[in-house]
Specification:
Pfam family, one: Endonuclease_NS
InterPro entries: DNA/RNA_non-sp_Endonuclease_sf, Endo_G_ENPP1-like_dom, ENPP1-3/EXOG-like_nuc-like, His-Me_finger_sf, Non-specific_endonuclease
Radius of gyration: 17 Å
Protein name: Endonuclease G
Number of helices: 5
Keywords: Endonuclease, Hydrolase, Metal-binding, Nuclease
Shape: globular
GO molecular function, one term: endonuclease activity
CATH class: Alpha Beta
Helix content: 25-40%
CATH topology: Extracellular Endonuclease, Chain A
Distance between the termini: 28 Å
Length: 172
């Protein structure tokens, strides 16, 4: 499959999947990370950590903003806001987070091969997160920085059978 720009991808999604089209968001207020009312503060790092350690790590989004912003305008706006909760962030080395070779590349692969594969009714379920390894992970104060991340993608094939892919990407 040839590489496409994100605008070409969004255009194709809007053309081929009208019920799942990306919705123009009414608000851009959620660009700053925030706490989630559904997750206890003890389960995530807040901006204090990311500001203090910004030289070494990014506030990496596990689910990127553009992926869940489809549906009705209200659904898209809530999904967009949810991606900016600290509970969707993990410290990631800036090269890992910003490189198309690593996490960003895997995100793009899922979008291009999941949504844009000519199976217009395909619904993907994506689960991702950090993998901790006490032997090679780095530490920032008392916070363990994951050296790897996993992503699992499952869907129903055109024949109606279960299908899936999984990946493990090392940050080091």
């Amino acid at each position: 499959m040839e590489k496409k720009t994100i605008d070409e991808i969004r255009s194709r999604v809007a053309e081929t999947e009208p019920e799942r089209r990306q919705v123009a968001l009414r608000s851009r207020l959620h660009h700053c990370a925030q706490t989630s009312p559904r997750v206890s503060n003890s389960f995530f790092l807040d901006q204090t950590f990311y500001s203090q350690w910004s030289t070494y790590s990014d506030r990496g989004h596990l689910t990127r903003r553009s992926d869940p912003t489809w549906g009705t305008p209200d659904e898209a706006e809530r999904a967009n806001a949810d991606t900016f909760h600290f509970s969707n962030c993990s410290p990631q080395h800036f090269r890992f987070n910003e490189s198309a070779v690593y996490w960003q590349g895997l995100e793009r692969y899922v979008l291009e091969n999941g949504v844009l594969d000519n199976e217009t009714k395909r619904r993907l379920c994506v689960i991702q997160g950090p993998v901790f390894d006490d032997k090679i992970d780095l530490w920032a104060d008392d916070v363990q920085i994951p050296s790897s991340f996993f992503k699992i993608v499952v869907w129903k094939s055109a024949a109606g059978t279960k299908a899936g892919k999984r990946g493990l990407i090392s940050a080091l």
